[in-house]
Design a protein that fits this description.
Blueprint lengths: L8 H7 L9 H7 L4 H11 L2 H8 L6 H11 L1 E3 L14 E3 L2 E3 L3 E3 L5 H4 L3 H12 L2 E4 L7 H7 L4 E6 L5 H13 L4 E5 L9 H6 L9 H9 L1 H9 L15 H8 L6 H10 L3 E7 L2 H9 L4 E4 L13 H12 L4 E4 L6 H9 L4 E4 L1 H33 L12 E3 L1
Parallel strand pairs: 4-11, 5-6, 6-7, 7-8, 8-9, 9-10, 10-11
Antiparallel strand pairs: 1-12, 2-3
Helix pairs in contact: 2-18, 3-18, 7-18, 15-16, 17-18
């Protein structure tokens, strides 16, 4: 029969160790975020539905995005044991320069709609983490403002070719003169995809204060307060717009974009050139022949053509087609550091991360983006250690098998 007794105060003291009280409400929220999925859940609570769905959603039935995520879930890691992994190097060489982590912050449009700190918050985290940041043509902070916000960051610029090529030439000039050393030309957007969540939510850019959004705003007063009491939500690269995202794309972007336009961009841009939106190996080979220094296997986060190819599954054939003449990068569906390790092991030189940091931004501004970076870095290091790999360059396809 068990004999019971009262615990001594010293014994209770050993086990009763309450966490320090976090007085800052943003800090309290982010302290409970241990994965990107946690950041997503916080973002969903903190942001109006139409805004959250713009970042979270994809085109039509959202199969492209779903399949990309399923491909990463299908990865089976094959570790090696009895390896010294006490010191792990997560750095990679990208276009001749070192990045401290094997990912960059991808270009995202309308970023200040997610949180009023917007692109400045993201580029400042990129500067601290010593990774590249890509500013979008559709950004809401100007080329010059981003450069001033993080003068030592490795900054790249993403370009859509507009119907007015003169505007594109001017954007390239401004980017180059402000220290953006690499241009990402996006080629998968001749017209806007059918993003049904935006259609159903009636999202316009900037958000309109309709009866429906006013009711939603009552549930998210902090977001609306920040939107209305900070600098107006405007575009960095053109004057203004009042309509849906798809209408904007169809009005501005050039549906006649072809390889002659790629040659024009290559001739105009003096720095490194990356072509983003490649979805088959033959196109990868052709754009490299036209002077691309890297290609990005991407279906635009599933936001353009639904049921498009899955970038992770395209990697082997694309690497064969390019044959080492250019780097091959990858995006879409990345929600963990393990996903990034898998993509690098399968042959990608770099991953672009977009939604993950937008969840962090919506959850807590710059501190939320930093939390995203911390989570991904921790997961990359732990996955490498459990695989028995000390350096990113030692990852091989045999470490990450697609089941």
């Amino acid at each position: 029969m068990t004999r019971r007794r009262l615990p001594r105060p010293r014994e209770l003291q050993r086990i009763l160790r309450p966490r320090p009280v976090e007085l800052n409400p943003t800090g309290r929220r982010l302290a409970n975020a241990h994965t990107i999925a946690d950041l997503r859940a916080i973002a969903r609570r903190r942001t109006p539905r139409a805004v959250f769905d713009y970042a979270d959603g994809a085109a039509e039935l959202e199969e492209s995005l779903r399949r990309a995520r399923q491909a990463f879930r299908a990865v089976e890691f094959h570790p090696s044991v009895l390896r010294d992994v006490s010191d792990v190097d997560t750095g990679v060489e990208v276009l001749g320069e070192r990045s401290a982590l094997p990912f960059a912050f991808a270009p995202t449009g309308f970023t200040r709609m997610m949180h009023h700190e917007g692109e400045r918050a993201v580029v400042q985290v990129a500067q601290r983490e010593r990774i590249p940041y890509v500013l979008s043509t559709m950004g809401t902070t100007s080329i010059e403002q981003v450069a001033r916000a993080a003068p030592h960051a490795r900054k790249w610029f993403q370009l859509y070719v507009w119907r007015d090529h003169g505007a594109g030439r001017e954007l390239m000039r401004r980017a180059w003169e402000n220290g953006y050393g690499t241009l990402l030309l996006t080629v998968d957007t001749p017209v806007g995809g059918a993003r049904m969540r935006d259609v159903r939510n009636g999202l316009t850019i900037p958000p309109a204060l309709t009866l429906r959004t006013f009711a939603d705003g009552a549930l998210h007063p902090a977001w609306w307060f920040n939107l209305l009491t900070t600098e107006p939500l405007t575009f960095a690269s053109f004057e203004s717009w009042h309509g849906t995202v798809t209408e904007l794309i169809d009005a501005l972007f050039d549906p006649a974009l072809d390889f002659d336009d790629l040659a024009w961009v290559r001739e105009t841009w003096p720095g490194k050139l990356v072509v983003k939106g490649i979805q088959n190996p033959a196109d990868a080979r052709e754009v490299v022949k036209c002077g691309a220094d890297a290609v990005v296997l991407s279906n635009h986060g599933g936001r353009q053509l639904d049921r498009a190819p899955t970038p992770l599954e395209l990697l082997p054939a694309t690497l064969d087609a390019v044959g080492g003449d250019a780097e091959v990068w990858l995006d879409t569906g990345i929600l963990s550091g393990g996903d990034i390790v898998a993509a690098i092991a399968r042959g990608a030189s770099l991953c672009l991360v977009g939604r993950a940091y937008l969840y962090g931004l919506m959850a807590g501004g710059e501190r939320g983006v930093q939390r995203c970076a911390d989570i991904l870095r921790g997961e990359i290091v732990r996955t490498m250690q459990l695989l028995g790999v000390r350096e990113i360059g030692h990852l091989r396809p045999s470490h990450a098998i697609l089941r």
